[in-house]
Design goal:
single chain; alpha+beta; six-stranded antiparallel sheet; 8 helices; 28% helix; elongated; DNA binding; transcription regulation
């Protein structure tokens, strides 16, 4: 029942009721969701409130609107959700391994390019220096989790970098050269991605991503790569532990 005295917004209460019906099997994949008019009458609310509840379920991927037909319960996929802590430097592979899953790296592009002035300044290298430019897709099974676009030093450390290293593990490659990663600095925001990112992450046009601009440093504090990282927000949460 709806509690109009509750601090929980009414549309959220309706969403919770409908979610429970989906979870317990009262509403099954492929079943139509009651129309917004029916929901409004059933719960004694305005049609706008009923629409907000349905919109919330649509954004969660629980139901899908089909033009000219109505709104239907989606097939529920395996809930692959990784929590990436903001207060420690863990790679996606390390987080996935902690969940008994494994990351598959898929190299999409690798070439040597002349770095822009901004990349040179960020990496602390001379103007017009050559760097590696790469694009990688990271998956758990067949599910795409992360799309990353990275500029990485060539000299003096990584002149022998190959596609095989990047399809395996970049950090294992660093370890093999006796190099340790100190950490990284990230600036994170939500944004609507471009077509290339949407295509590789399997997102719809209005699906947001969690975007991070990341600069990673070696143990001596030297920056060695700068990356644009796009996290599929359906499968990621970020956590932060703060001491008072």
């Amino acid at each position: 029942m709806i509690d109009k005295q509750s601090h929980v917004p009414i549309y959220i209460q309706i969403e919770q009721i409908l979610s429970k019906k989906i979870d317990d099997g009262s509403l099954k994949p492929g079943d139509p969701l009651p129309s917004e008019t029916v929901l409004a009458e059933q719960y004694g609310v305005s049609r706008m409130t009923a629409r907000k509840a349905v919109d919330y379920l649509v954004r969660q991927g629980v139901v899908e609107r089909q033009r000219g037909r109505g709104t239907f319960i989606c097939e529920q996929t395996l809930d692959l959700k990784m929590a990436l802590p903001l207060d420690s430097h863990l790679t996606s592979s390390e987080v996935a391994n902690s969940l008994n899953s494994s990351i598959v790296n898929k190299l999409l592009h690798l070439e040597k390019v002349t770095a822009s002035q901004k990349v040179c300044e960020t990496l602390g290298i001379e103007e017009n220096s050559q760097v590696w430019f790469m694009k990688r897709l990271r998956l758990v099974g067949a599910v795409p989790f992360v799309f990353e676009s990275t500029y990485m030093l060539i000299d003096p450390y990584f002149d022998d970098l190959t596609e095989a290293h990047l399809n395996s593990s970049k950090y294992l490659y660093l370890d093999s050269k006796g190099l340790k990663v100190k950490g990284s600095e990230k600036q994170i925001r939500a944004e609507l991605p471009g077509e290339e990112v949407r295509r590789h992450l399997g997102l719809k046009r209005d699906d947001p991503v969690l975007y991070a601009r990341s600069v990673a440093q070696l143990e001596d504090g030297k920056p060695f790569e700068v990356s644009d990282i796009y996290y599929n927000q359906e499968h990621y949460t970020f956590t932060l532990s703060a001491n008072r």
